[in-house]
Design brief:
Length: about 425
């Protein structure tokens, strides 16, 4: 018997549809009886036609896929039984979820401890077993933090080396030549870092998606992107399908189905509170609102990304990238045509150009002074509001402008800030 998942994944089947023949030659006596009854049928239904469907399956290909799937299962079971590596189901609610029960932990180290101490060897031997598991969607998220062999206590850096070690040194039944469907993670409470290329991420979801870069088992023929299994590739390929996709609500057309779906979700669908707090079950429309709630209500601070050069911390990867490019890489691609100054963003260049043009388009509604930059007008408005936000910690004197506060600290207290 073949599992339907295996049939779909091989692509080695043919469906033949052959029209049957209607019974044109009816029994004469039947026709006579029908005519005698004089049944009036204004809309006679067409004669039924038989359709013969034949599915031709490449059995050898399917059996090879099933054999490969069993070898993948054998690999992960031997790793779980003979090392301290632990599987991760997902990251949701309050944190990382156990593969063997419903427990969740904010600190991945606590999940690892729970899995090793609370779940038996029998649980690990039965991990990922079952007829519904096919290679089409198979992959395992594995925590290999401080990975070591349980048999000889040797520390080993990665999954591939561990498979070789267990097979050669301890004669375990493993298959090192398979394209790996195991995504390895070395996790800490404060930093999410790829254990292959050491890139930093601020969500586990982003890190997991990134791991496809290193496990290119299935390749997109359009953009050459790689994916760990065929299911993720199939979902990705939807973004390349071009056509005319019309919104049923407003008749707008889009060139991809994904754009149409996004449009319908944002413009026509009722607001769905998709972001659920794992601590109190309150829901939020935006992910950023959920993060703010976690900080204010539950005291949960999202992992920050630390700059490896100057040790500054950033809340998002975007902020970290901008900082790195601007400060450390000195990427200034926007050049002033009137002088030699260069800038990181187009907005900074536009602000600079007011020095050359003398244009003052931002006017104060109180004293009618004009300024070339909106930020300068905003700073000026604090004078009228008596907003003295810059306070000297030594004498208590407060100032409206930061430059005035700095001058005070330098001249009165000898502090060069």
């Amino acid at each position: 018997m073949f599992v339907i998942g295996d049939l779909l994944e091989t692509g080695q089947f043919i469906i033949k549809i052959e029209p049957g023949h209607s019974d044109e030659k009816q029994d004469a006596s039947t026709k006579t009886r029908a005519s005698k009854k004089k049944i009036k049928n204004k809309d006679p239904s067409p004669p039924k036609r038989k359709i013969n469907i034949e599915i031709v399956v490449n059995k050898e290909e399917t059996q090879a896929r099933q054999k490969e799937m069993k070898e993948h299962q054998c690999n992960i079971q031997e790793i779980l039984l003979n090392t301290n590596a632990t599987p991760i189901r997902c990251h949701k609610g309050i944190g990382y979820t156990c593969c063997f029960c419903e427990d969740q932990y904010r600190d991945p180290a606590h999940l690892k401890k729970h899995t090793l101490e609370q779940h038996t060897q029998e649980d690990k031997a039965n991990f990922m077993k079952g007829s519904r598991n096919t290679l089409h969607g198979y992959f395992v998220k594995l925590d290999i933090t401080d990975l070591k062999c349980n048999i000889c206590d040797e520390n080993i850096d990665n999954v591939e080396a561990m498979i070789e070690h267990l097979k050669k040194i301890h004669n375990k039944n493993l298959f090192p030549k398979l394209n790996s469907h195991i995504l390895p993670f070395k996790l800490s409470k404060d930093t999410l870092r790829c254990c292959v290329c050491l890139n930093i991420f601020n969500t586990f979801k982003a890190l997991q998606e990134h791991m496809n870069v290193h496990y290119r088992n299935y390749i997109c023929t359009v953009c050459d992107a790689g994916f760990v299994n065929k299911h993720i590739l199939s979902r990705h390929e939807e973004c390349h399908k071009i056509g005319v996709f019309t919104c049923g609500e407003c008749s707008r057309t889009f060139d991809t189905a994904r754009k149409k779906t996004l449009h319908q979700r944002t413009k026509h669908a009722e607001p769905k509170l998709r972001n659920k707090c794992g601590y109190c079950s309150e829901r939020f429309k935006e992910f950023a609102q959920k993060l703010e709630h976690l900080v204010k209500v539950h005291g949960i601070v999202k992992p920050t990304i630390d700059c490896q050069v100057c040790n500054k911390s950033f809340k998002t990867k975007h902020e970290w990238r901008v900082h790195t490019a601007r400060i450390h890489l000195m990427q200034k691609d926007h050049n002033c045509t009137l002088c030699e100054m260069r800038f990181y963003t187009k907005h900074e260049l536009e602000n600079h150009m007011t020095k050359h043009t003398g244009l003052r388009q931002f006017r104060c509604d109180v004293c009618f002074k004009s300024y070339g930059r909106k930020s300068t007008l905003r700073d000026h408005m604090r004078i009228h509001a008596d907003d003295r936000r810059f306070e000297c910690t030594m004498c208590g004197q407060a100032f409206v402008q930061k430059c005035t506060w700095r001058s005070h600290m330098r001249s009165k207290h000898g502090e060069d800030i």
